[in-house]
Write the structure tokens for this entry.
Amino acid sequence: MNTTYESIQDYVVSCFTIVLAGLVLWGAKDIPPPFFDPLGSAAVPKACAYILITLAVIISLRKLFEKKSESSASSEEAGYRAEPWLAVAVVGLSILYTFAMDAGWIGFRWGTVLYVLATGSILAKGNYKVMAISLALGLLFGIGGHYLFSTIFYIDLP
Amino acid sequence: MELIHAFQYLLTPTPLMWLLIGVASGIFVGAIPGLGGGMLMALTVPLTFSMDSTHAVLLLMGMHVGSVSGGLISATLLKMPGTPSAMMTTLDGYPMAQNGTPGLALSWGIGASFWGGIISAVFLIILAPPLAQFALKFGPWEYFSMVMMALVLISSISQGTMVKGLLSAMLGITAALPGLNASDGQLRLTFGHESMTDGFNLLPVLLGIFVMSQLIKDTVEINKKATSISLKNSRLFPKLSTWKKQTVNLVRSSIVGTWIGILPGIGASISSMVSYGLAKAFSKTPEKFGTGHEEGVVASEAANNANAGGALIPLITMGIPGAPVDAILLGAMIMHRIQPGPLLFQTNGELVWSLMGGYLVANILMFIVMLFSTRAVARIININRAYLVPVIFVFCVIGAYALSNRIFDVWLVLAFGIVGFFLDKAKFPLGPFVIGYVLTGFLEKNLRSGLQSSDGSFLPMISRPLSLLFIVVAVFFLFLPFYTEWNRKRKQNQPS
């Protein structure tokens, strides 16, 4: 079995696709049969689900029987160090920021100040100048942005 | 005559101002590696809700034109294309800059971008009206099979294998299915959630795929640095006398870019690759390509700018995006109650001519802005990601929330951003996803209309000549990669 990093990625995407297709089939099973037109509401979702499953299986089988080839150049070989955990932290902060506004804990104004400061600080990796500028940007886009979009552009914000 | 009226309108202060803002912001954002025209356009769409529709589309079109050209700056000075379409420019633009002539490299690129845009504008103005007339003969089966052809085309030409492209397209189609089915008022795939009644709105999906996924990628690659080359004491204004030798290359590359742009679903990066390859094949000095040869820069930049104009042709005449980024333009038009397609010439001819004339004016503005702002832009394109990433996400929140005052749409941005990042990482192209998502409603509507008119029979899909032609092309491109692979293996296995 081909177990290179690229193959594992393909297997994961295929599994995700099959699960998604299963979800679509399950969601489509309660749609009533067509009344006005020959197709009905369920036909297209079901067709999409079956095509997705077929394609996912094809991709998995191709990887399974593919000869183990050289993997593409890693980021180290490409001349830089990848930071996947930094990305996880940034996405985590983005989720927290969104959840805090959704739950009503904080509004857009101060939520944005804290979010820009926190994310900028993590990405700054200890550079105090960058952190200070992130704070300034947070205040600018949080307070200033709230005023600009809600008062000038008439966009309601959380 | 309509074109003259369009220019009379476009050269008034307000439309000209929006075009200029669009072009200038597009150049700036397009020059920054990791950002791009798609991101800028997606973030700008919600800001255009209160604008006049024509101004909004002119602004977005200006951004598209500007961003394609802006990518030239970082491609030449940093060896990092600001936009994917500028990838081929790095092959000769950066070496030329390294050899001590960065200004010359940029001047070749700016001039080529300008002429590529102008030539494709001419094709747009000449071809769009008759093509729209021709498209009036299309019935639902022709539209259905044409969209299928577009999806297969973009799947077969995108990065990664064709099967991955098809899967990406199908995922995009699936993402467009939840919500109220317009044909019979039936709710489907909502799983009982009230928020899903309207399905996944276009803007959060675009913001997620184009913006959030790129932000995640930029964070992962935050340590990727580029060696910058200074533009000090470099001449930027191109000498007219040096352009004579590049005339054939320029015209050929522009035509290639325009015609590849016309093919639905194919973007500027493909046209610049094809054009670069052709320029090398026809060159008297092919060995110089990749070492800082102006022919390479001209071929790439003329084609990628011409592609933008070519891609407008199917968008305006048939409502099918010529490139993934045009899906944003399509989405914006629909949000402003403009339905692109052959009837648009009849129902809103002034708007169509304004758009086509606007594209021409945008290229002229791009040329002027690039000449005078390149030095300034070159100084600030290496912006620290620590500033950009959170600020851009804040704009995503504003843009998504502004649509319907729902945090649900912001969650969608996050979700599609994460999905888009992993798909891209696993080399599943995102172009087919976006095109599939945007065209699903159109595809299903025409399929239903066709089946209703044929009493449930699929036969007209192959009995109608145009529809059959599109199906044949789709099948050809569907099996072409398999045949190419089989042929390659057969030659490898043949005894020498």
About this structure: The radius of gyration of chain A is 24 Å. Chain A has a mean pLDDT of 87. Residues 95-152 of chain A form one domain. Chain A touches chain B through 74 residues (CB under 8 Å).
